[in-house]
Amino acid sequence: MSLTLSARLNTELSALRDSGLLIRPRVLEAPQRARTRVDGVDVVNLASNNYLGFADHPEIKARAAEYLQTWGAGAGAVRTIAGTLQIHEDFETQLAEFKHTGSALVLQSGFTTNQGVLGTLLQPGDVVVSDELNHASIIDGLRLTKATKKIYKHSDPADLDRVLSENDTEGLKMVVTDGVFSMDGDIAPLDELVAVARKYGAVTYVDDAHGSGVLGAEGRGTVHHFGLEGAEDVIQVGTLSKAWGAVGGYAAGHADLRQLLINRARPYLFSTAQPPAVVGALVAALELVQRDPSLMERLWSNTRYFKAELATLGFDTMGSQTPITPVLFGEPEAAFEASRRLLAEGVFAVGLGFPTVPRGLARIRNIVTAEHTQADLDFALGAYERVGKALGIIGA
Question: What residue ranges are annotated as transmembrane (predicted)?
């Protein structure tokens, strides 16, 4: 007799419960802000990717409402049939200018962008070399290709050189890396990685989900941070859902990249275009970050303060270089218990364990934003001190 659906669901869910890995998302009962409400508790929010405070920003909401009223609730079709509105093309021009690239194309999410771009560019006979800690969307995107796949040690240009030297090809060679790694908060040494890639004639592909809006002048991203903007052998992809406060993904690079993706990227070809309100929000976000430098200044001032105070308390922040600030607890039980206790103290910060992060490196990942005040951060630090001492993570 065949396995029933109920049996499969029960087996898988039981395994997750028994291993302590079953996810039950917390529900926000107020807008995504530096302070919000979770499970009936008013909290300081350290769990979101809302780096610049754009998710509930009045100017961005106003532009979204304007585009909604002018252009309607939805696009009504995929981009290649009847779903490309003038506002879509205008925003992509704005994005390419912001990124200093020859072209840009917006897709439905950062995850599908990696599937669409990697699936379009990589063919049999190509070689792609990926950082061992790259995001799951990159891993899944590469699985869909028939290119030869190799791994190099995390952020290690010397190991990248070794792998490329051992894997020559007549096809395309590509090096793939996150710009900022989402679990550890470290920055890829992109200048060194690009130099190695160029030595072997390889293109460099940078997923800048957590670098765009955070690094580089006016938030232009990791590529700009390392002075590599405008390079035709560098492809930038990322999300529009983190620093930009809305939703979507983008690919920016060579002037011809956009046209090929329009014709070949399956997520673009088979998904309805972004709603007008989302486009309006993104237009406003790009304008605002360029007009108001205080946003990034506050983001980095808050980041430096929070990291320094955690270190003073005795916490290990794992060498993070960005607003992503992990606090190491080691075993998942400790990280999850700390997360529960922090919530009871009024701090929303989520524990992460295997398989999201390696075994033995369970942590709470905190993200500081431009919207947090010092009072918010001091409140969170006080809670961290009490919980850390209670669990024996820091000294009494």
Answer: none
* Higher per-residue pLDDT: 116 or 20: 116
Amino acid at position 139, single letter: I
Q: Contact 215/187 with Cβ under 8 angstroms?
A: yes
- What φ, ψ does residue 144 adopt, rounded to 5°? -80, -10
Instruction: Supply φ then ψ for residue 233, to 5 degrees.
Output: -95, 15
How far, in Å, CA of 295 to CA of 371, rounded?
8
The tokens for 375 are 């009072």
How far out from the chain centre does Cα 300 lie? 17
Question: Dihedral, CA atoms, 262, 219, 236, 276, nearest 10 degrees?
Answer: -20
Minimal CA–CA distance to 348: which of 28, 31, 53, 50? Answer: 28
pLDDT per position as a tens digit, 171-180: 999 999 999 9
Q: What domains can you pick out in the chain, each with its CATH number?
A: 23-54+293-390 (3.90.1150.10), 58-291 (3.40.640.10)
**pTM check: above 0.85:** yes
- pLDDT for 19 equals 82
Distance CA 123, CA 137 (A): 18
Would strands 324-330 and 249-253 be described as parallel, antiparallel, or unpaired? unpaired
| Rounded Cα gap, residues 288 and 383, in angstroms | 33
Over residues 128-134, mean pLDDT: 97
Give the pLDDT confidence score for residue 355 in this predicted structure.
80
Residues designated catalytic:
182, 210, 242
